[in-house]
Amino acid sequence: MELQFLGGASEVGRSAILVNDRLLLDYGTLTATPPQYPVGRVDPEAVVVSHGHLDHVGAVPALLSGDRRPTIHWTPPTAELARILAKDTLKLHGVSASGARGGSKRRGRFGGAMQCPFTADHVARLGEVETRHGYGEPFEAAGHEVTFFNAGHIPGSAHVLVDDGETRLLYTADFHTDDSRLLSGSTARPDADVVICESTYANVRHEDRASVEQRFVETARTTMWEGGTVVVPAFAIGRTQELLLVCAAHDLECYVDGMGTRVLSMLRQYPEFVRDSDALAQAARHAREVTGRDGQRTRIANKNTVIVTTSGMLSGGPAMTYIPEIRTNPINRISLTGYQVEGTPGRELLETGRCELNGGIYPVAAQTALFDFSAHADHDGLRAFLAAYEDATVVMNHGDSCAAFAKELRRDGFDAAAPGLGETVEC
After folding, report:
1. Does the pLDDT at position 339 exceed 90?
2. Is 0.90 surpassed by the pTM of this model?
3. CATH code of residue 215
4. Residue 351: which residues within 8 A CB-CB, separation 6 or more?
5. Fewer Cβ close by (within 10 Å): the C or N end of the chain?
6. Per-residue pLDDT tens digits for 288-306
């Protein structure tokens, strides 16, 4: 089996792996200015998408340009999320999601034009070529037998097992081994000769989830009791819904704003892909949805309440309306709930107490803290998962410390490697 790493090699973002020059696993983007895409030109017969996050699915519509029509395979939630993200990408580039023609450009935060790699026509073509699959249902793709297994990362996320008749490849994609309120952790360990394993948190040990949740709830209650507002920047996919479940379980009054509301509505149509669909429905009823009309956000920002809103790294979205409103009062709180990439306003806020707001850099007096609600396996989770594959070839990707983790695995007897960007590996 031949594997070519077109993205996601010793980096977090733009995941893309070409198998036997025919089958493409994921085709994502890397959040940067300007955004980065997988290297080289690829023309696969079929594409298998592990899950609906931008770094794995963000560039998929671009594969449908010209007369190219590879079949796209994914789970039902991933199919829906791909469309939501693609339309949002077009919007960010100043393109109407209906009827746009040709490429589009907008000015980046630091100047320079950014080119959208696809159009609304390409997004519409997804319906012509897609096939949706559930977990544990083998299907054929570009001459390979492929099977999805629940990865426990976000709804619809999948480990991807690929069999070419000689070699069985397990592409873990992003996964989590612990249960959350939204999802059950990954338990599938299908037989494989080669494992491509993510390593996002290979050098981190997560705090116990119950402890994280308890701290989040206690600080939110204290802030509201003191008369403050809690703004909770959250990723729209997975994290927003998890936090709404937490708020409902602890009877915290909350509002929900941004793309996460659309994702919540969509996920309720696929109850089999969440841990407890009744609890999710109750969380949806518990939260008050923000419409953004007639100064609503400004009024809510001055209430003693919790506001769960995109974006998770303060790089846009409704959060950038709420933060200016609450930043000067030290009673208020900003509860970040996910990893803050270097160079984002969220990372800057954590490290300096200042934040980019409306084109300027401003000090933030509101209390700020990070709560680790990660949906990735940490070091111990990765090692526990890989314990089932001691006799397999292990290839590390999707991480900033892939080489170091591969070295650790080799020291413990694994056949492990960390290929570079554009590298081809024979297995």
Report:
1. no
2. yes
3. 3.40.50.10890
4. none
5. C
6. 999 988 889 999 999 999 9
Question: Which two three-digit tokens encode residue 164?
Answer: 């070419």
Distances 278 to 175, 179, 269, 282, 288 between C-alpha atoms, Å: 24, 17, 12, 6, 18
In a 10 Å sphere around its CB, with 0-12 CB exposed, 13-18 middle and 19+ buried, how is residue 121 labelled? middle
What the block records as the tokens of 1 is 């089996």
CA distance 144 to 139: 8
Going 314 to 315 to 321 to 324, the CA torsion angle's sign is: positive
Q: What is the DSSP string of 19-38?
A: ETTTEEE----B-SSS-B--
Q: In whole angstroms, give the CA distance from residue 161 to residue 270.
A: 23
Mean pLDDT over all residues of the chain? Answer: 93
Asked whether residue 338 falls in the same domain as residue 422, the answer is: no
pLDDT in tens, 7-21: 999 999 999 999 999
Instruction: Find the domain containing 237 and state its range.
Output: 209-370
Count of domains in the chain? Answer: 2
How much is the CA Rg of the chain, to the nearest whole Å? 21
